[in-house]
Amino acid sequence: MSSGRERIACRERSAKSIVKRTYTFFALSTLLVGLGASLAALKPPAAQAATEPTLVVANWEDYGSDEPWAVKYFEQKYHCIIKPVYFNSETQALSLLQNGGLGHIDVILPNLAYVRQAVSEGLLQPIDTSKLSNYHELYPILRNNPYDRVNGKVYGIPWTWGTTGLGYNPTLIKTPITSWSALWNPKYKGEIGFFDDPTTAIMTAALYLHENPYHPNLNKVKAALLQQKALDKLYWSSQNDWDKAYTSKEIALGNVWSGAATALIASGVKMDYVLPKEGAIGWVDNWAIAKDAPHLKLAYDWINYMISVQFQAHYAKDLTAEPPAMANSEVNKVLPKKVIDATFSFPQWLPKLTIQRALPPGVLNTWTLLWEQVKGQ
Amino acid sequence: MAELASRAVGSKGPTPGSRVNLAAVLSVPALAVIVGFVVIPMVLLIDFSLHDQLQFGGAFTFDQFTGVLTSSMDLDLLLRSVVTGVAATALALLLAWPTAYVLAKLTHPARRQFWLAVVIIPLLTSSLLLIYSMIVLLQAQGPLMTVLSAFGVSSTATLDFTPQAVVLMLAYESIPFLVLTLYNTIDQIDNRLFEAARSLGARRWQIFRDILAPLSTPGILVGTVLVLPPAIGSFVEAQILGGPNGYLYGNLMQDDLMTLYNPSQAAALAIVMLVAVALILGGLVLLMGRRPGRFKA
User: Distance (Å, rounded) from C-alpha A264 to C-alpha A254?
Assistant: First the structure.
């Protein structure tokens, strides 16, 4: 199982639907087992002879921070041991901290949509950005996002980002696509794959209708989604579903994750991935420092290394690791154009993105019910 | 256990008392399974469905049920799921019955084990894998469509991502269970009945109608009880294979539970489905069980 691809798949899923997997119960049991295993791993090594401090890093598996070259470099430079702790969903990341992680975990990587929730539950501590020498190199639009702040204090340091844009098969579709209206164009009836996710569906329809993605007119959105449904071949719910339908030419276009596009193109499949002119949904992952982190100084060193050009360029270059776009604005200067194109690391896209943040609970409910009605009709 | 063993050795036969003890000991696992995995979950399910979401001590309410029973979409989806499940079961029966007959009556006994093993292979395979294989089987220019295009079906046509594909998939998943239960039942039919019927001049369809069909009924019933409820409650097949119009009642439950985080709503949906399935199966048993085989009459 290609965990990297699965992980990026999960990465890019909208906030609340992350655990929604094809196999609900398998996912749940994996989660429980994973949680148990992670908690077991949290117990301090009882009789470890090493005097070097152990920095506990919580992240998705195969997601940059556990690259052997990076771990080796950091351990040697800062005379410490890196201990990874893995989670399978954002909710699990938070529950790691809630259930015994505080005082053991030093740094963790929440999605922007979860930073404020983690802060309100008292799981994170504010970060003094003046102690991060590389912080000023991050794209201002990413590091100035109000949703990684609470009461003016910074809790999340942007690390990577990605988009949910429009992918299409240039051998089947000759006219370049530039707008979400393609997904509403009867010309493509029966060739469209649409992402089965309430947040993505409603925000995409809102962008198409030129409505505010966070406060759209839901009647208009529902009508548009029903109209759109008539043209669909498929509602895809995992990257695997998209890949199968796309490579077998059952679908020719649809809304899809930049990570999925990176992976497909890297495997030799022809696909054009564009950011429609109306804008698109994006996500940002942030490094955060856990409350009561035992190794505060090392935690700062770690985050500073993670956002450095040195790390980010190295991580981005290996396309087989399916790297997302990097948050450090200096990285593109040292990356080959091929890599920039393959990872869609285009800073000019950033201002057009609606970055996913937490939805008020009532809104998510309403949206999910609306999406159920569209699918059930 | 030692006591049991000594009694078995020491006395000439088990006393009534030891029989009771043995029965009690042997039924512990069954009781544990039934209480732990049927009774307690059912109680929890009902408890969830009658309270406000996520709250164990939440307010008692019938809102979830009135919500389901007054929503035309929920009921439409339930009907859609029932039709899908019944169609899949019927299709599977159509294919499994002759297979089971051939295995039980026309296959050399030495080869039966082999063919039964072949029939069971899909059960040993990950169902997710089977679903993805079905996508390949049904896709445009895939094996099935290539055959069909010889009969004038458009070469770009595909069955993938349609409700029909879900029926095919569910039928495929049901076939091994139905073959096994029908094989068992048909195997037990006395061959002399067929011989007698033939020697008395019965035609093939008469033999089928008056002997094979009524005597297979128990197998059909058991098989249907095994495959129909999971088919009606299925959601993975619909999610991967069903396309935009494949949404089923099971998907609604999944979305309520996993996306909406509303276990109470999902529990109410589950109980409504449970009752509906119980009614369907009860009706089926009454219908098929009451009708006496013509052979008996």
Answer: 14
Q: Does A189 touch chain B (CB under 8 A)?
A: no
pLDDT one-digit tens code per residue, B98-148:
999 999 999 898 999 999 999 989 889 998 999 999 999 998 888 998 888
Q: Which residue has the tokens 């409603």?
A: A202
pLDDT digits (tens, 9 = 90+) for A300-349: 999 999 999 999 999 999 888 889 999 999 999 999 999 999 999 999 99
In chain B, what residues touch A237 (CB-CB under 8 Å)? 239-240
* B210 and B202 Cβ atoms separated by less than 8 Å: yes
Rounded CA Rg of chain B: 24
Residue A259: exposure state from Cβ atoms within 10 A (0-12, 13-18, ≥19): buried
Element (H, E) at B275: helix B263-290
B222, burial (CB in 10 Å: exposed 0-12, middle 13-18, buried 19+): middle
Q: What ipTM, to 2 d.p.? A: 0.82
Cβ within 8 Å of residue B145, ≥6 positions away: B138, B139, B153, B155, B157, B158, B159
Rounded CA-CA distance A131/A134 in Å is 9
- Candidates B140, B235, B240; nearest CB to A250: B140
Chain A within 8 Å of B40 (Cβ-Cβ)? Answer: no
Check B161 against A198: CB less than 8 A apart.
Answer: no
Residue A304 near residue A143, CB atoms below 8 Å: no
Question: CA nearest B235 in A: which residue?
Answer: A22
Query: How many A×B Cβ pairs under 8 Å?
Result: 82
- Of the candidates A194, A230, A248, the beta carbon closest to that of B139 is on A248
Which stretches in chain A have pLDDT values below 70?
A: 1-50
- Give the closest residue to B67 by CA, choosing from B75, B57, B79, B58: B75
Q: Do A375 and B257 touch (CB under 8 A)?
A: no
Q: How far apart are CA A272 and CA A204, in angstroms?
A: 19
Give the Cβ contact number of residue B219 at 10 Å.
25
Residues 6+ apart with CB under 8 A from B151: none
Q: What are the Cα distances from residue B41, in Å, to A174, B48, B230?
A: 55, 10, 17
Q: Determine how many CB atoms are found less than 10 A away from the CB of residue B32.
A: 10
Residue of A nearest to B141 (CA): A248
CA gap B233, B168 in Å, rounded: 15
Residues in chain A: 377
Give the DSSP H or E segment for B237: helix B236-241
Tokens representing residue A290 in the block: 């856990």
What is the separation, in whole angstroms, between the first and last Cα of chain B? 51
Cβ-proximal residues to B103 (8 Å cutoff; 6+ apart), any chain? B112, B115, B116, B119, B179, B183
| Contact with chain B for residue A20, Cβ under 8 A | yes
Sign of CA dihedral A191, A377, A374, B54: negative
| Smallest Cα distance from A186 to chain B, Å | 15
